[in-house]
TrEMBL record, chains A, B, C, D:
It comes from SAR86 cluster bacterium. Pfam families: 4HBT_2. Keywords: Hydrolase. This is 4-hydroxybenzoyl-CoA thioesterase. InterPro entries: 4-hydroxybenzoyl-CoA_TE, HotDog_dom_sf, YbgC/YbaW. Belongs to the 4-hydroxybenzoyl-CoA thioesterase family. PANTHER family: 4-HYDROXYBENZOYL-COA THIOESTERASE FAMILY MEMBER, NOVEL THIOESTERASE SUPERFAMILY DOMAIN AND SAPOSIN A-TYPE DOMAIN CONTAINING PROTEIN (0610012H03RIK). One of its GO terms (molecular function) is fatty acyl-CoA hydrolase activity.
Length: 131, 131, 131, 131
C-alpha cells in the first residue's frame, strides 16, 4: 500500500437531486477528482498524459453506499493506491463525513493505462509509484 | 427475473470529458435514467414516491467498464430487475453500443427503499413486481 | 434566418435538483446538445472539428427562465441559426414544454470558431450555412 | 451594492469536455455554488428555504465568456449582490483566473423568490440584506 491521501470537499447544492441528497453518480466525480489530485501530488498529470496519448481508464468500480451526503455537509475522500496485477492498479477510496466521521461510501476502483494504439500498459511513472 | 427493458440513448457531447469519451460517472446517469423509465413503465414513479416520503436508494453498484462511448455513438441500456433478498432488489444492466452490439458496460445495482423514518422496507408496488 | 430545427427531450430525474426541478445549469446542456444535433444535420460535426483543431465556442449566452421543467416532463428545443457579424453566429433557442406548449426558456447564444492558434475565424462550412 | 464575496475553486478534470476546457454549462454550477455560499454567510440557507416552501429561482442569466478554464486552473468567483426591483435581486459575478487575474466570465444573474403557492415575493431575510 503505497500512499494515503485525504482531500476535503463540501457538498455543492447543484449536486443534490430531487431526493435532497447528493445523487449517486456524483460520488464518482468526487472519487475521480481525489484520484487526480493524488496522482498530481505524485507528479502524474492525468490531463497531460491524455494529451500525450496515454489514457488512464477505469475498468471496474465497486461502490458501497452506506449513507447520504446532503446540502451543508463537508467530507473528505481518503484515497489509497496499490498494484492489483501486472497491468492494473487499484484505488481504495472512502468518503468520510466531517463531524461524525461516518464512512458514507467505500469504493474500489480498478484502472489501467491505455496507449495511443489502445493497448493496456503500465506507464513508468505509475510503476515507480507502485513499487 | 421479472422483466427485461431496453432504452435507446445517444451520447451528448457535453457528457464527454477531456479524453474525448463519455466520463465514467455519466454511465451511472444513463443507468439511473433507464431504471426510472423501467419503473415508470411498471407504474412506479420515483419522483412521486420521493414526494410521498419513500426514497428508493442505491446501496451498492458494481460496474465493469469494457469499452468507451464517444461522440456520435448510439446505444441501448438493457435493464433486468430481480429480488436480491427480503428488503433488497437488484438491477442487472448492460450498455450495448448500436452498430456492433458490443457490451461496453455491465453493471449490478442493488437498491432498497427507505421510508420517511429512514427505515428500509419493501414497498408493495415493488414486492408485487418482484413476485 | 437559415434553418429551424426541433429536437425532442425528456427530463431525466438526475437532472433535477433539491428544489425538485431541473437545475438552471442543465438547460445549457439541453441547448448545447440541440445545437450540436442541428449542426450535425448540416454535416458540421462539433467533435470532429475539435479533433481537427477548430473549436466552436460560446462567447455569450442570454437566458430567460420563464418556468420550470420537472420530473416526467417532455419538451422540445427549437433552434434557429443566423449570422450575427463577420465572425460571430447566433443561435436563438427556445425550450417548449410538451402538452401545454409553454415556452419555459428563451435563449440567445452567440458563438464563434477558434482555430488552432486561438484566432477567431469563420469556417467555410458555417459561412455556407449562413448564406 | 451590499456585499462583495470571493470564493476560491479549482477546476476538476470531469468538468472539462472533449475540447479539453471546462464546459460552458459548468460555469453556471460555479456561479450557483458561489451564490449559495454567499447567502449562507448571510444566514440565508438555500436548501432550508426550499424545504420550507420558499424557492429562490433564477429568472435571467447573462453570461459573457471571455476565456476558457482548463485542467489545473484555479480561480475565484467574485459575487456582488444588489436589488434590481421590488421583487427581483441581482447577482453580479465574475470568474477570475488565479495567476494572471484574467476575467474569464462576467455574469449577471437575476433572481426572485417564489412561495409555496408559486407567487413571487421578497423574503424578509433578503430584503434586510438588500437594504
Amino acid at each position: 500500500m503505497s500512499e494515503v491521501s485525504e482531500l476535503p470537499f463540501s457538498v455543492r447544492d447543484y449536486e443534490c437531486d430531487l431526493q435532497g441528497v447528493v445523487n449517486n453518480s456524483v460520488y464518482l466525480n468526487y472519487l475521480e477528482h481525489a484520484r487526480h489530485v493524488f496522482l498530481k501530488e505524485q507528479q502524474i498529470d492525468f490531463a497531460a498524459l491524455s494529451k500525450a496519448g496515454i489514457n488512464l481508464v477505469v475498468i471496474r468500480a465497486e461502490l458501497d453506499y452506506k449513507g447520504s451526503l446532503t446540502s451543508g455537509d463537508s467530507f473528505i475522500v481518503r484515497t489509497r493506491f496499490t498494484r492489483k496485477s501486472r497491468l492494473k492498479f487499484l484505488f481504495i477510496q472512502d468518503i468520510i463525513r466531517e463531524g461524525d466521521e461516518k464512512v458514507l461510501l467505500s469504493a474500489e476502483v480498478t484502472g489501467t493505462a491505455v496507449n495511443s494504439q489502445g493497448k493496456p500498459f503500465m506507464p513508468e511513472e505509475l510503476a515507480n509509484l507502485l513499487e
